[in-house]
UniProtKB/TrEMBL annotation:
Lineage of source species: Bacteria, Bacillati, Bacillota, Clostridia, Eubacteriales
Keyword annotations from UniProtKB, A to Z: Acyltransferase, Transferase
Domain annotation N-acetyltransferase: ranges: 159-290
Keyword Transferase: yes
GO molecular function: acyltransferase activity, transferring groups other than amino-acyl groups
Protein name, entry field: GNAT family N-acetyltransferase
Coiled coil segments of this chain: none
UniProt key word Flavoprotein: no
Superkingdom classification of source: Bacteria
């Protein structure tokens, strides 16, 4: 027999155990207690109301923790069912316990079983990011033409230039243009590298930008792109290779980059210099309750 419970003193230890195993299903499942212990008393009360524990007979087998965004969007922060039970039925019961919403979203990192299960439960994948990695075992071959120069962005001098170039490269209807203040804010973050922001120049025209950041002691290339009129001409590979060689000279062993799974041209470019796909993180939507 299945039954739902709210979080209380008598079952908190059982929930702690379930919470500890949350990443078995999805590494992006959020840690309830990290949020709970950093919230005030009123916020803690609201958090407990958004948590549902599922028991089979007298044993707790799973939970669902949600968050409401606006009037019609529900975000699943974390959900988990123990492996030694009917997993599909358990997740179905959790989802059926929810009130109807226009959109239910869930962020998930792919493993050997969760994508297939989400599809069976009625979820649809709406977008995904691939995380790719390349090992820096040696210098990459690079031939720089006379008309090409690389320019390191200097703090306190080049913020406006960087802002203009980034807005030109990444211009789209879905993107809010950067302001110079956004560049200053970026420079204040712990991940920012002083010599990691790089502009590419052809003759007297800036055509490309790429940036190296450090996240969890791992270097990443972010905000990488070439102006539309200069794409598919080899400039992207040249800028990418130049940045990889900078990292190799600094003694870095590898670097990662994230890319939209639908951006086939970018994925092809990254693979051409040795990047391989490591993980996929995606957003899923459930438009109906099973």
């Amino acid at each position: 027999m299945y039954k739902f419970y709210t979080l209380n003193k008598s079952n908190i230890n059982e929930f702690k155990s379930l919470n500890d195993f949350r990443t078995e299903f999805n590494k992006l499942n959020k840690d309830f207690f990290h949020v709970y212990h950093n919230s005030n008393q009123f916020q803690q009360l609201l958090l407990k109301k958004r948590l549902r524990l599922l028991a089979e007979d007298s044993r707790y087998i799973g939970y669902l923790w949600t968050e409401i965004k606006g009037n019609s969007i529900c975000l699943i922060n974390s959900m988990y069912i123990t492996k030694d039970t009917d997993v599909f039925k358990g997740y179905g019961l959790l989802l059926n316990s929810m009130k109807p919403y226009s959109i239910i979203t869930y962020n998930c990192e792919k493993n050997e079983m969760n994508y297939d299960l989400l599809i069976r439960l009625g979820f649809n994948k709406v977008k995904a990011l691939l995380e790719m990695k390349v090992n820096l075992d040696s210098m990459f071959q690079l031939q720089i033409l006379d008309r090409i120069n690389f320019h390191k962005v200097v703090r306190g001098k080049d913020e406006k230039l960087r802002c203009i170039i980034q807005n030109s490269i990444f211009c789209s209807e879905d993107r809010i243009p950067l302001k110079v203040e956004d560049i200053y804010y970026d420079e204040m973050q712990d991940y920012y590298c002083e010599d990691g922001a790089m502009l590419m120049k052809v003759n007297n025209t800036y055509i490309g930008y790429g940036q190296i950041i450090i996240k969890d002691n791992t270097p990443y290339i972010v905000n990488f792109g070439i102006l539309k009129d200069y794409r598919s001409k080899g400039y992207g590979k040249m800028l990418l290779t130049y940045m990889l060689n900078i990292l190799y000279k600094k003694g870095k062993k590898s670097i990662k980059i994230k890319v939209d799974s639908k951006n086939e041209s970018a994925i092809k470019l990254y693979k051409s210099v040795g990047f391989i796909e490591e993980t996929e993180q995606s957003q899923w939507q459930l438009n109906k309750i099973i």
